[in-house]
Amino acid sequence: MEEKIFFYYTSDLHSHFENWPKIIKYFNEKKIHRKREKQAFYLLDNGDHVDRFDPIAEAMLGKANVELLSDAGYDVATIGNNEGITLDHDSLFHLYDNANFQLVCANLNSIDGNNPSWLKTTHKLETASGIKIGVIGLTAPFNAFYHLLGWHIDPPLETLDKYIKQLALETDMIVLLSHLGINDDEEIARRYPEIDVIVGGHTHHLFRDGEYINNTLLTAVGKHGNYVGEVILTWDHETAKLTKKEGYATNIDHLDKDQQAEAELKLYKQQANMLLNRSIVMLKNPLEADWFKETELMTKLVKTVQDWTGADCAFLNAGLILESLKAGPVSYGDVHRICPHPINVCVVELKGNELLEVIRAAYTNALMEFELKGFGFRGKVIGRMVFAGLEIDLSPSVAKDFHVNKVTKNGQTLNMNKKYKVATADMFTFGNLLPEVARSKSKHFYMPEFLRDLLVDALKKVNQ
């Protein structure tokens, strides 16, 4: 006799709650069908459900996200980097205290040795017919950030070496919730034949019909809840083996919204507005946001970053500020709205010649108009770079670029061989936007403060 087991999952929602009522509608319809057919089914989340760009996640520090998962009837979840490194240690330690589902993350540990009660390395599910399913979770090892918050992430492959064989002995099949990214998932599939299904995420890849490496099914649903995942495993009771593995990603744009979920989100939004709408400053004059100008607001923010870090100089991109501010009271909700990015400050060491290359790149039209997606940036374009602690002489050049004529600090020309401490947004330490920054061997990240926390300080200085 064959039996089908169904898994439904989300990954990388990033607090895009506009899609949540549709997701719940889809899951509820599937639940009704599976119950009617007396088929086993489970709900899973693969991390990055929380993203503090949304006011609900910001005001409640992810607690509302966890309540949404609980109310939806999820069974197992793992954490992504947005849960792991955008909350301070205490907030993450208590994030899942009241969850009605099991959190699994085998490579997360508190540095002080005191792990939260909700954290498990693996979890076992069992169907009514006695089929045992092992679930293990892994998250991306961004230890440069985690260590500053009091956590450590063990290497994923070493973690699997530690747990996977025993889990295979104790269960009939294994599902990995992997918030590692597609490259790691493919390597894991090649190395660990014990793993039957890898639910992938983090790199926001999408597999409409699943992918197979050897005997492992890889599945993924992109980002923001535009797709939901379904995995169907067929078990033969006579041979005690899996005979078929299927994975599908379903677009939910066409679905109606679940009214109860919609009402729940409306209440959370009202609560969030109440928590965030406390006044922090009274502006005498409006403050302009312009992605391609050095505005007073950006100048104050960059100077605040330099002073706060004690760096020799600082720079930020004007695209970080999404909207202008009117004269009058400004609330934390306003600050969050105009600067929603979960981005921290980082100080890197650059030699004078490297800093000069960064400045030259900063004033190219290609960088200023670059539409960045990822690295914590929730805006549209990079925009003009604004500097503090340096005097930069510019003249217009071809193709909307600027020519850097001269760079001085306190009237002295940059020393090409001297090392300078440069404060900027941590997003420039990733990728190839500014290679000299990304390649710096000296990086000091400041956590848990976000840029918007420094923006609050900058706003208070505007009236001084």
TrEMBL record:
Record Pfam families: 5_nucleotid_C, Metallophos
Coiled coil spans: none
Domain 5'-Nucleotidase C-terminal: 288-427
SUPFAM superfamilies recorded: 5'-nucleotidase (syn. UDP-sugar hydrolase), C-terminal domain, Metallo-dependent phosphatases
Residue span, Calcineurin-like phosphoesterase domain: 9-205
GO terms for MF: hydrolase activity
Source taxon at top rank: Bacteria
Keywords associated with the record: Hydrolase, Nucleotide-binding, Signal
InterPro entries reported in the protein's UniProt record: 5'-Nucleotdase_C, 5'-Nucleotdase_C_sf, 5_nucleotidase/apyrase, Calcineurin-like_PHP, Metallo-depent_PP-like, Pesterase_YunD
Family, as annotated: Belongs to the 5'-nucleotidase family.
Protein name listed in UniProt: Bifunctional UDP-sugar hydrolase/5'-nucleotidase
